[in-house]
UniProtKB/TrEMBL annotation:
Residues 81-90 have a biased composition (Basic residues). Residues 146-166, 324-341 have a biased composition (Low complexity). It comes from the Bacteria. Coiled coil: none annotated. This is Uncharacterized protein. Residues 1-32, 52-105, 143-191, 252-277, 322-353, 419-450 are annotated as: Disordered. Residues 7-18, 430-442 have a biased composition (Basic and acidic residues).
Length: 450
């Protein structure tokens, strides 16, 4: 087959026999001393393009590139967006070739789930507006269905009295008390609670008793008032063993006789507030108290302590409250047996649950004022223990309690079970007014407020 010939004759390499050496290399490689270093590469007149440049040049030869308008050079840095709503300007992220990158998905912040929970709460409240109103009224407002106002804000508690007041407590708007607000509509709402309302005066030496002895005797009087009038077990119908233990042996005879066999002449409520749990159940353990205590020398006898306190008890109807209110005084059931262990029986002993009584959310209050004189005899002249209670005189007045029953318990009247009371023939009195002398023997009176 034919062979293509070179366009020009090859120079003699000098290796032919008898030939010449035109290159004058003496038979050596002319590129043997060539060094392809960095300087040589940089001095080259023609440079080879990168592979990506050749690919893009071939692509753009047929389809020229279109400027999207947002492209920036890598050297120019990221572009800043406009500032909106006082926030920081966002920096636009681009790739190495100037193309904008899509924004990354932001992580879920803590505000997002909070907004979701608040939205759900608002929707639930909108679906149950009445329930929300009732909840607010029970905790912060008035009775259900009444819009809360600034008047429902609890007033600050007044200080205990140090002497007999000169006027009755100011009147307040009458409101129906409930289990959640048992002191609504009562001046006692701002009174001290429990033992905080019984303040001991500053002691000093009196007669044969020095200052420390007088201090101990005044504290004993306060402890007795607390045990006799504020003990939840006694109020719920239990036996006042704690108060009886503080009394001198001779002083225990009358109250013990009254507790064992109560009658018109021996009424244990003259010393101890007790409610029949079948008829009235205390609302919690809170009792409002206001009054004063003072002491003086009793001459040769020793020390005389005067007390005048008003106790306000909130109760709700028991399981038999409705039928007892409808029954006549002569048909009233006999009193329950007093617990022998000195504690009140639990509610479960009643015939039916208290919640079954209609209108049991309405409550009532019984107001008891007691004026009592305590005497501590001189042990050098009398056979009496100066560390025990001796009652020289006691007078009591009750507001909102039946006058025709002497079974050893208070019998409050509940508004939801109201009935006529023909036995109430006495004058109308204010049970919260302890600015006047406590008088008894005016018959069965009616109260002006409760």
């Amino acid at each position: 087959m034919p062979i293509a010939e070179d366009p020009e004759p090859r120079p003699a390499e000098g290796r032919e026999p008898g030939g010449s050496d035109p290159s004058e290399a003496g038979g050596k490689d002319p590129f043997a001393g060539l060094v392809l270093d960095e300087e040589f590469v940089r001095s080259a007149a023609v440079k080879e393009q990168s592979g990506r440049t050749r690919v893009l040049a071939a692509r753009w030869k047929h389809t020229p590139p279109v400027d999207p308008g947002g492209r920036r050079s890598v050297n120019e840095g990221p572009a800043a967006t406009k500032r909106r709503f006082g926030r920081r300007p966002k920096l636009q992220v681009v790739d190495p070739w100037g193309n904008p990158r899509p924004p990354k998905r932001r992580r879920l912040e803590w505000r997002t789930p909070l907004f979701i929970v608040l939205t759900i709460a608002v929707l639930l409240a909108a679906l149950n507006v009445d329930g929300l109103r009732n909840w607010y009224a029970d905790h912060y407002g008035e009775s259900s269905g009444t819009a809360p106002s600034a008047a429902t804000t609890p007033a600050p508690t007044v200080a205990p009295e140090t002497a007999k007041p000169t006027a009755a407590p100011p009147s307040v708007d009458p409101k129906q008390p409930t289990v959640t607000r048992p002191w609504a509509g009562s001046p006692a709402e701002t009174w001290p609670t429990g033992a905080a309302g019984i303040e001991i005066p500053a002691a000093q030496a009196v007669g044969v008793f020095d200052e420390d002895q007088v201090t101990a005797q005044l504290k004993l009087v306060k402890d007795f008032l607390v045990a006799a009038n504020l003990d939840p077990q006694v109020i719920a119908g239990g036996k006042p063993d704690g108060a009886l233990a503080m009394m001198d042996r001779a002083a225990q005879e009358k109250p013990s006789r009254a507790l064992a066999s109560p009658d018109a002449e021996h009424d244990p409520t003259s010393w101890f507030p007790r409610f029949d749990p079948r008829e009235a159940i205390p609302v919690g353990d809170t009792v409002k108290v206001q009054g004063w205590m003072k002491f003086e020398s009793d001459g040769d006898r020793g020390l005389l302590v005067h007390t005048d306190y008003t106790f306000v008890y909130a109760v709700r109807p028991g399981p038999e409250a409705e039928q007892r209110a409808a029954a006549s005084p002569t048909a009233r059931p006999s009193a329950p047996d007093a617990p022998s262990d000195g504690t009140a029986k639990p509610v479960s002993w009643t015939l039916s649950p208290a919640d079954d009584v209609a209108g049991d959310t309405w409550t009532a209050r019984t107001i008891v004022r007691r004026a009592t004189d305590f005497r501590f005899y001189d042990p050098g002249k009398y056979r009496a223990n100066p560390q025990k209670i001796n009652i020289s005189m006691t007078k009591s007045n009750f507001g909102n309690s039946s006058c025709d029953t002497t079974d050893g318990y208070f019998h409050p009247q509940f508004r939801q079970f109201a009935r006529p009371h023909p036995e109430v023939t006495g004058p109308k009195v204010d049970p919260y007014d302890h600015s006047q002398e406590l008088e008894t023997g005016h018959g069965c009176h009616q109260t002006s407020r409760s």
